[in-house]
Amino acid sequence: MRKRDEKVMLYHFAEGDRLAKVQALLETLGMESLLLPEEAWSEKIGYLLGLKGFQKNASLSGEFLFPHEVMIFYQVENRRLDQVLEAFRTQEVPRVQYKAVVTPMNRFWTLRRLCETMEKEHAYLTSREEIR
What we know:
Elements: E1 7-11, H1 17-28, E2 32-35, H2 45-48, E3 70-74, H3 78-90, E4 98-101, H4 111-131
Parallel strand pairs: 1-2, 3-4
Antiparallel strand pairs: 1-3
């Protein structure tokens, strides 16, 4: 059976040591990293991954202010994802708060929608932790 092509899209990472550490660890784990440009927010996840049936979004309008770094995992199974996240903890790579896995549903979302959804979920979980 052919090994899946595991990819990790990186959004909002500034050039420098932090990005280099993240990319080096992903490479060590045999995962391809794709550094997304700032304007990628208007594109669908499937397009950004180069999946068949997706085309570039011709209507780029407005702006998107999202200050957080994002890691989006593609073709990474549950157990493997646990291994990857553990490697990030043990190698002391700085924490990336916003992480997502590409699903059959969210591959049709724009990166903006995915980021906004993660931000809402994070706010909800944070508020629940403050109640405890």
